[in-house]
Automatic annotation (TrEMBL):
Keywords: 4Fe-4S, Iron, Iron-sulfur, Membrane, Metal-binding, Oxidoreductase, Transmembrane, Transmembrane helix. Residues 268-299, 339-368 form the 4Fe-4S ferredoxin-type domain. InterPro entries: 4Fe4S_Fe-S-bd, 4Fe4S_Fe_S_CS, Cys_rich_dom, HdrC_iron-sulfur_subunit, Helical_ferredxn, NarG-like_sf. This is (Fe-S)-binding protein. It comes from Geomonas anaerohicana. It comes from the Bacteria. The chain crosses the membrane at residues 70-94, 106-127, 147-166, 178-197.
Amino acid sequence: MSPNPKLFAVLLLLSASAFVIGCYRRFSLVALGRPEDRLDAPGTRFSRMLRLAFGQQRVLGKPFGMNHFVIFWSFIILAAANAEFLVSGLAPQVSLAALPVPLQHALLFLFDLVSMAALVCVLVAFARRLFFAEPSLSSDYVKARSPEAFLILSLIALLMLAYFGLHAARIAAGIEDPAAMPVSAFIAANLVAPLAIDPATLAVWSWWLHALALLSFLAYLPQSKHMHILTAIPNCFLAGLERPNTQPREEFTRGGRFGAGRVDEFTWKDLFDSFSCTECGRCQDACPAAGTGKSLNPRSVIHALKTNLLANGASLRAGDAPPQPLIAASETGAGAGEGSAAENAIWACTTCGACMSVCPVLIEHMPKIVKMRRHLVQMKASFPEELATFFENVEARSNPWGIAPTERTKWHANLQVRPFEQGKTEYLLYVGCAGAYDARQKQVTVALAAILDAAGVSWGTLGKDERCCGDSLRRLGNEYVFDRTARDNVSLLAERGVKKIVTQCPHCFSTLKNDYRQYGMDLDVMHHSELIAGLLASGQLELKQRVADLGRLLFHDSCYLGRHNDVYDAPRQALTAATGSAPAEFARNAERSFCCGAGGGRMWQEEQEGERINLNRVKEALQQEPDTICVSCPYCLTMMEDGLKDLQGGSVRVKDLAEVVVEGLRA
């Protein structure tokens, strides 16, 4: 029953050579990327890797995830069985039989049951792709019934069947103890013996079938999309430790290149991400652009990066210009090849972070899109025409509408608002562009001012000296103007001695709190929901009445408050304290919340493709039959109100959290 060790050694050498060469060809391409430190805090990284890679935490978030969980752990456990198989193929005297009998039987029992579980899960995966494939399994390059998918599943199934055939033959021949291998013993008793199959012949055929399937899988793995088997676990270790609430700074030098218009302008980690994608489609399912018929699909962006790297690697190594463009000038990317991302897809991103929050292997989609935007804006001046006006207005007058800075203080024309004074004022109220200029959002600013006064909070403003924080500039890729804006703002805040800031806009909140740290400004920044919730909880803010005239109150999470900064409880606590009951929830809420459509600079662009994102969200809201939709963001307020108008939402109102709470101050 023993194989021919010399023949097997030759086949193993060929397979191992193909594996090593394939891995080298791909991993060496990663070295084309720019340097980046991803080895800090190893303890934190290791514990997260255990939870997400080995614990499959995000994979188990979907029903089919349990099937993948079983296959994953089957591979981990059966790696020991396959290692023993390879070693014994070269040296038959080295096998599990050399172990103490109790340990040998325990391992055989485990391998037998795990092999059966893996076979069942592979059959379920076959059925899923054939009969129950969800939309995320299909795209322009991913097909539920792709030959590659069935090839991989078939190889796994052959490994399991060959394993059972080999051990059933050994049991039938009296070589192995049937008590240690229940599944193989069942096959031996119910197939091998009744069908009078020669155990020696079955053992030889099964051994070689197992060998060929295993060696074929080993040789093919680096060439296939299933290379993520090798990269997914380290990618979880190497992923960023912080939430995706900021972007790396750029150094502006004469003659430099900015952003990423070629694959070698990304970091090595960006390129490693592209080999780690499992093509599961979770990012596609979560993406508001993909979900409303836009050309953007986060999975396609990562796939384009990988395909472009493979196509251009040789040229880039030789110092030549890459023949395949990374960014396609056409709207669809047609004609540019599979390894290109279409420009309109790049501009469709709302930077909501939903793709990153669901990715099982922690791929960082959004930062790559921002890097490509930087290239388009700063190197090619290629961007949607409406952004030209936006960029000019912010650069010239430090607000998106180009309104005179002297108009910033008109929101408090009938109020006594004090300027911020160092040493005398505790909080700077950073009003923000929307809070100062937008007619509807001014009402929120007034409500917030009334709340701060009622609680006895010491606060002031910068008045007409306040400038745009630059959030949309940075997310749209205009890093140069953002850099100047941030430097000016940091200088102003330092000069005024500002230490604590409260703002009603999650975009201002996130930028001041996270982006400005890159400029040496470490501020105590609070979103108004956090401050109000704290004031209510401590008793410093006492309401005169419960707010009871809002009817059914439905709360919408802001992406930049929630997913980007993990502020979920504060707005709900404030609303509960003000109304006496917890707000109703969207079907998609908290970390799974669906974007309003205005983030990432989309507030200043038109939607030319598919369904408007805000309409999708408002439709979801109307299914809950609310009387009031509560938000905590100026962008969300605008998008919700516009959506209700378009959908004729009847008497449904939209209110900011501050507007709800201030009602409780009225006698």
